[in-house]
């Protein structure tokens, strides 16, 4: 998820938001020369589309118990409403970026936006779990095409100061998304019905399509060959990730050692290994194997996957707990998450200042230890829990911890990446983020469901406690990895010259 680019020359890192992919790195040189000023219409259309994508990650969380009751969804299956979206989005990002590069950016953007808008309307009309999960999956695939194309339009339409302002606004959309999505989901669900959290995308998407089709310039591009898209690689990675998520989700209803779970795990392993084999042999691989040799990028993406998983999984469990156990309305749940969102922002500010004095790995590991400690604190909440006394302290500590991890990960992952590889590198980081979100919900939901059903009072309490105990263990493992693998050298004033 993206962060706000720092001004040139500023010796600081801008915060990287947990619900937004990192834009392509922008290097110095020609990019800093102000060309002719362009109208802001293209930016407005790209931002409108990205707002839809960002909100749809978190907007569903506050509506989960309501949707579950309405469609008779079992507690263990609720996580599919979140994971279907982020898994297809994460699995398809590399292919989406390739399509936007090889085909018309305009065409990729408008196609992605049209599909996303249509899938949103279908989601609102869904009458069963299967229909809603399928529509959410199509939304995710559309987002995988839409996000890289929107970012490409911004970076190719604007130059110099205009580009810096545009990327700052792109980052702001992501920063507001985490709070706005949960709050909007709560407000819409309380005042109307859960269907409107999807239907609201219809008029916004239609207007963006109309304006975009008239204002985005057409480009002439050479017709690519199918081999250029590496469709076998894309199918293998998406299939492998979907099988892995299904295996984790199946544990809630079938158990960890059931045939469902074991077979899905095996299929996932085979497909992901096939993906790596395909990438080694492909003439134009979706993901160039040499990227694995970029230690800072690989370690940063691994930590990004871990911290995003903890963040989105924690929001998922807490949304259900405050509504099922504390009896909050969807609207009250949205408001209850505001301190958490502000704490994440505060954490990014803290990390920015600490990076001037400490190594990135120390800052990231400290944030992860705080996240783990907060998870332990939250795991003690019982059926008689009070929001202010039992949840708020843990949420604030976790928010600060999460914010402290995103900044060093964003900065070090893209450091030293040549501009020719910036797209692939940021795509890798974005994929880690989205896949982390899906796996985080799947893993924590699977761990939580071993203690009880998320749809009953006693079950949700036991599941919440078990889930956050699991989150604490995961946070400590990722903290140890960050300390071991992330860069040891301190970041200098050059940090301000990086735009992710």
From TrEMBL:
GO cellular component, one term: plasma membrane
GO terms assigned for molecular function: transmembrane transporter activity
Primary localization class, coarse: membrane
Residue ranges of the TM segments: 40-60, 80-100, 107-127, 133-154, 166-190, 196-217, 229-249, 255-276, 297-322, 334-355, 362-382, 394-417, 463-484
Keywords for the protein's UniProt record, in alphabetical order: Cell membrane, Membrane, Transmembrane, Transmembrane helix, Transport
Chain residue ranges for the region called Disordered: 1-34
UniProt xrefs under InterPro entries: MFS, MFS_dom, MFS_trans_sf
Name of the featured protein: MFS transporter
Record organism: Nocardioides zhouii
């Amino acid at each position: 998820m993206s962060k706000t680019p720092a001004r040139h020359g500023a010796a600081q890192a801008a915060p990287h938001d947990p619900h937004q992919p990192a834009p392509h790195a922008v290097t110095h040189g020609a990019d800093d020369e102000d060309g002719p000023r362009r109208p802001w219409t293209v930016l407005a259309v790209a931002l409108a589309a990205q707002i839809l994508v960002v909100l749809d990650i978190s907007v569903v969380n506050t509506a989960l118990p309501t949707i579950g009751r309405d469609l008779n969804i079992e507690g263990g299956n609720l996580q599919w409403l979140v994971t279907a979206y982020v898994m297809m989005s994460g699995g398809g990002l590399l292919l989406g970026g390739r399509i936007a590069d090889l085909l018309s950016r305009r065409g990729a953007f408008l196609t992605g936006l049209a599909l996303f808008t249509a899938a949103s309307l279908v989601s609102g009309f869904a009458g069963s779990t299967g229909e809603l999960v399928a529509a959410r999956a199509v939304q995710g695939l559309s987002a995988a095409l839409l996000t890289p194309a929107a970012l490409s339009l911004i970076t190719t339409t604007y130059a110099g100061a205009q580009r810096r302002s545009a990327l700052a606004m792109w980052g702001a959309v992501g920063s507001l998304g985490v709070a706005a999505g949960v709050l909007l989901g709560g407000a819409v669900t309380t005042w109307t019905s859960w269907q409107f959290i999807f239907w609201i995308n219809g008029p916004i998407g239609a207007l963006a399509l109309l304006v975009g089709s008239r204002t985005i310039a057409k480009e002439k591009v050479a017709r690519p060959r199918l081999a250029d898209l590496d469709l076998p690689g894309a199918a293998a990675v998406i299939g492998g990730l979907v099988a892995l998520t299904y295996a984790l989700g199946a544990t809630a209803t079938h158990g960890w050692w059931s045939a469902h779970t074991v077979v899905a795990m095996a299929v996932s392993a085979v497909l992901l290994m096939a993906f790596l084999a395909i990438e080694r042999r492909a003439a134009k691989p979706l993901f160039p194997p040499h990227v694995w040799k970029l230690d800072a990028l690989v370690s940063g993406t691994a930590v990004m996957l871990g911290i995003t998983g903890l963040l989105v999984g924690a929001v998922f469990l807490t949304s259900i707990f405050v509504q099922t156990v504390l009896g909050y309305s969807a609207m009250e749940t949205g408001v209850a998450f505001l301190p958490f969102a502000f704490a994440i922002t505060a954490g990014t500010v803290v990390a920015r200042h600490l990076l001037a004095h400490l190594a990135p790995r120390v800052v990231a590991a400290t944030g992860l230890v705080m996240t783990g400690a907060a998870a332990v604190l939250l795991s003690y909440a019982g059926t008689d829990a009070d929001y202010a006394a039992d949840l708020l302290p843990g949420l604030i500590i976790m928010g600060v911890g999460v914010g402290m991890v995103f900044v060093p990960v964003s900065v070090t992952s893209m450091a030293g990446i040549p501009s020719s590889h910036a797209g692939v590198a940021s795509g890798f980081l974005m994929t880690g983020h989205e896949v982390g979100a899906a796996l985080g919900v799947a893993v924590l939901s699977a761990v939580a469901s071993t203690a009880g059903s998320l749809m009953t009072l006693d079950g949700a309490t036991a599941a919440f406690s078990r889930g956050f105990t699991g989150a604490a263990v995961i946070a400590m493992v990722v903290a140890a990895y960050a300390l071991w693998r992330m860069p040891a050298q301190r970041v200098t004033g050059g940090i301000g010259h990086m735009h992710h």
